[in-house]
Design brief:
Number of helices of chain B: 0
Order of helices and strands of chain B: EEEEEEEEEEE
Radius of gyration of chain B: 13 Å
Shape of chain A: globular
Helix content of chain A: under 10%
Helix content of chain B: under 10%
Distance between the termini of chain A: 41 Å
Largest interface: A-B, 22 and 23 residues
Largest sheet of chain B: 7 strands, mixed
Oligomer: heterodimer
Number of strands of chain A: 11
Structural class of chain B: mainly beta
């Protein structure tokens, strides 16, 4: 069935270091890949997204890469700051706007 | 506030009772989604509306769950005969003819 696997489940980095979160998906029809940030007790917020006709997208300190052949995509955060600490979710759209989320990565940025 | 709103924010109910949640999307958004999120997990898709039409419904959604969007604006999610396993955060999101979804603050349901 449709699923999205996300790794790692927990990631701890030193302030200023880079963080990378990876997701793999199963449905080859997936054509949109958003990343959400969710702080404790708050709603998920879209931070970056990529469509299937693009291999890479960057927005300041965050970037996303997509490998459709291998069915995986990654989130890269450079120069991490304590305020980047949160849970990050990847997701895919698998036809008809049904959205499948990964289980999340809890990122800790140590000052 | 022009964002997605949900009401109530918290609901405590006894097992077996029915509950109804409301979602008000961003006013010009034609697409509306319902998700369920349990602690430590990602949002789990429940159902999706385009205007007033319910176009997708998760196989995980049992017959106890029903959702409506009668005039293509606000939506309601009803859970009948609640069970303890229904305890979760229920999230609503909306979008306008695009993939980008904006989430509401959620309704936290506790079934005792």
């Amino acid at each position: 069935g449709e699923n999205v696997e996300q790794h790692p489940s927990t990631l701890s980095v030193q302030e200023g270091d880079s963080a990378v979160i990876k997701c793999t998906y199963s449905d080859s029809a997936s054509n949109y890949f958003p990343w959400y940030k969710q702080e404790l007790g708050k709603r998920p917020q879209l931070i970056i997204d990529i469509r299937s006709n693009v291999g890479e997208k960057k927005d300041q300190r965050i970037a996303v890469t997509l490998n459709k052949t291998a069915k995986h995509f990654s989130l890269h955060i450079t120069e991490t700051q304590p305020e980047d600490s949160a849970v990050y979710f990847c997701a895919t759209y698998t036809g008809g706007f049904k959205t499948i989320f990964g289980a999340g990565t809890r990122l800790f940025v140590k000052a | 506030d022009t964002g997605v709103s949900q009401d109530p924010r918290h609901k405590i109910t006894k097992r077996g009772q029915n509950v109804t949640f409301r979602c008000d999307p961003i006013s010009e958004h034609n697409r509306l989604y319902w998700y369920r999120q349990t602690l430590g997990q990602g949002p789990e898709f429940l159902t999706y509306f385009q205007n007033e039409a319910q176009l997708e419904k998760s196989r995980l959604l049992s017959d106890r769950f029903s959702a409506e969007r009668p005039k293509g604006s606000f939506s309601t999610l009803e859970i009948q005969r609640t069970e303890q396993g229904d305890s979760a955060m229920y999230l609503c999101a909306s979008s306008w003819d695009s993939y980008e979804q904006y989430f509401g603050p959620g309704t936290r349901l506790t079934v005792t």
